[in-house]
Design a protein that fits this description.
With 218 residues, the protein is an all-alpha fold. It contains twelve helices and no strands. The longest helix has 36 residues. It is elongated.
Length: 218
């Protein structure tokens, strides 16, 4: 075989191999996302060992780690973290794994993410942080983990709302108590001029109303 045809054949072979490799990697990434969706930590670990990316993303922008954080799958989350998953990779709504775990009250995952230096100050596309997710939707254990890591109990969103306001409006009594213990300002006002007490009254959260009044809310 002449040299040029031989080189051309070799180049063509390399292109075919590269295409096959790329397709294989895409398939592995897809399978990894399926394993995460199914909560199969062992399968996820095997796929990563075969070359799947721990930062693969589905059509909503969720990584396997974001899926694990949202579903509370600690074993899967740890497999992904040990494989180097990006702790701050957001989905299309700008929700990070820390926000997902905080929302679900998955405090052990919250602590693991914080140990890997997850960013406390990240906010989603409607400007809610992990602390707000924990205050209004999560639980006191997740909230405590975030506060222990340095989150500000008096942080404000674009509407001037504090975590205490979110907790009070949602009737999360344990979260209200914890935030007050950690220095939340009971009479702070949002952009509408409302306090946590006014918001609790607006949302008919009578137990939160009583708790706030006992703490000096006016």
């Amino acid at each position: 075989m002449a040299l040029k045809p031989r080189l051309a054949a070799a180049a063509a072979g390399l292109l075919v191999c590269a295409a096959a490799s790329g397709q294989s990697l895409r398939n592995a990434n897809f399978d990894l996302l399926l394993a995460a969706r199914d909560g199969n930590a062992a399968r996820a670990g095997a796929l990563i060992a075969e070359g799947a990316s721990p930062n693969a993303r589905n059509r909503l922008g969720d990584t396997p780690l974001n899926i694990a954080a949202r579903t509370g799958n600690l074993e899967l989350a740890r497999v992904l973290l040990d494989a180097g998953a990006d702790v701050d990779q957001p989905n299309l709504a700008r929700v990070t794994p820390l926000m997902s775990a905080a929302y679900g009250g998955h405090d052990r995952i919250v602590r693991d993410l914080l140990a890997r230096r997850a960013d406390l100050k990240r906010s989603d596309r409607i400007h809610k942080t992990a602390l707000v997710y924990a205050a209004g939707n999560g639980n006191a254990a997740s909230l405590s983990a975030l506060l222990d890591a340095g989150a500000d109990p008096n942080e404000r969103d674009d509407e001037g709302e504090t975590p205490l306001m979110w907790a009070a409006g949602a009737g999360k009594l344990d979260n209200v108590k914890l935030l007050l213990e950690r220095g939340a300002q009971v009479n702070a006002r949002d952009a509408r001029g409302l306090t946590a007490l006014a918001i609790a009254q607006e949302q008919k959260q009578e137990d939160a109303v009583q708790l706030l009044r006992q703490a000096g809310a006016q």
